[in-house]
């Protein structure tokens, strides 16, 4: 999630809960959520990751905003390492020290990915709705995909299985305009193109998702309308790139 009404409401709720000590959450869980919010404001993503991990380990279903906080903490932490790895990749042959530094970054990324992957089986098992299960399965696919970027054994197959199961549930239980289903289709198609090297499967999934959007009437009052428009735009950009450049494995954007 980004700045806006949802984030502002969530922040106000957490502040009231932290100061009053009231609410249905236990004090320790409430404190962890409050400190995760503070870490978010400070852009201390590793700290936020630690707080939200402790919340998840309680073993209770997460509210929608709590899922968003968990996702953001790990995403920001992992993406910083992924970008760093991409930056140093071209210099690995220049010095043994660069190779050592690359290995350090890979170890940090692996720790981050494994951290969230260790949490997800329990979160999936206690999730009471399709939306939550799709959310967590998508995260499983995403973080296995990140591990696969530097040749982690078994990560590709695990990512594929998680994405496929998430798509099965999303197709059965979520509307074509649901941001969870759209974000899943975006990331799964990126995985098909970049990791599996199956451009035709990526094109097929992107086309089917966009066709479904065009056939299913959107609710003009849908609060997720702006997010959906962003995902739709990226899917269209990726689809155009893949179709116009058959030999190019590039991707416009990912990770909604």
How do the helices and strands line up, and which of them pair or pack?
Layout: H1 5-20, H2 27-41, H3 45-56, H4 64-88, H5 96-126, H6 130-148, H7 155-173, H8 179-194, H9 199-215, H10 225-244
Q: How would you explain this protein's 3D organization?
A:
There is one protein chain. With 256 residues, the chain is mainly alpha-helical. The chain is built from 10 helices and no strands. The protein has helices at residues 5-20, 27-41, 45-56, 64-88, 96-126, 130-148, 155-173, 179-194, 199-215, 225-244. Helix 4 (64-88) packs antiparallel against helix 5 (96-126), helix 6 (130-148) runs parallel beside helix 8 (179-194) and helix 7 (155-173) packs antiparallel against helix 8 (179-194). It is globular. The termini are close together. Mean pLDDT is 87; it is low at 1-5.
SSE pattern: HHHHHHHHHH
The fraction of residues assigned to DSSP E strands is: under 5%
Mean pLDDT: 87
Q: Biggest β-sheet, characterized?
A: none
| Unreliable sequence segments | 1-5
Structural class: mainly alpha
Task: Please give the radius of gyration in angstroms.
Answer: 19 Å
Query: Helix fraction?
Result: over 70%
Tally of contiguous helical segments? 10
Q: Gap between N and C termini, in Å? A: 9 Å
- The oligomeric state is single chain
Number of strands: 0
User: Tell me, what's the shape?
Assistant: globular
């Amino acid at each position: 999630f980004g700045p806006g009404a949802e984030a502002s409401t969530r922040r106000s709720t957490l502040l009231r809960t932290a100061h009053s000590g009231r609410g249905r959450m236990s004090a320790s869980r409430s404190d962890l959520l409050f400190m995760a919010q503070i870490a978010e404001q400070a852009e201390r993503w590793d700290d936020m990751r630690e707080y939200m991990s402790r919340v998840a380990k309680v073993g209770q279903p997460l509210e929608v905003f709590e899922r968003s906080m968990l996702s953001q903490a790990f995403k920001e932490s992992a993406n910083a390492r992924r970008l760093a790895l991409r930056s140093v990749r071209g210099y690995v042959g220049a010095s043994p020290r660069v190779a050592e530094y690359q290995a350090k970054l890979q170890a940090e990324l692996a720790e981050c990915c494994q951290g969230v992957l260790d949490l997800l089986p329990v979160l999936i098992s206690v999730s009471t709705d399709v939306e939550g299960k799709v959310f967590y399965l998508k995260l499983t696919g995403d973080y296995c995909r990140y591990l696969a970027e530097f040749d982690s054994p078994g990560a590709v197959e695990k990512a594929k299985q998680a994405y496929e199961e998430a798509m099965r549930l999303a197709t059965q239980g979520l509307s074509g305009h649901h941001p969870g289903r759209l974000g899943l289709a975006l990331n799964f198609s990126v995985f098909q193109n970049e990791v599996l090297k199956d451009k035709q499967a990526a094109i097929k999934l992107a086309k089917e998702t966009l066709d479904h959007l065009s056939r299913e009437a959107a609710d003009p009052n849908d609060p997720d309308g702006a997010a959906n428009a962003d995902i739709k735009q990226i899917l269209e950009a990726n689809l155009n790139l893949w179709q116009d450049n058959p030999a190019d494995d590039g991707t416009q954007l990912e990770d909604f």
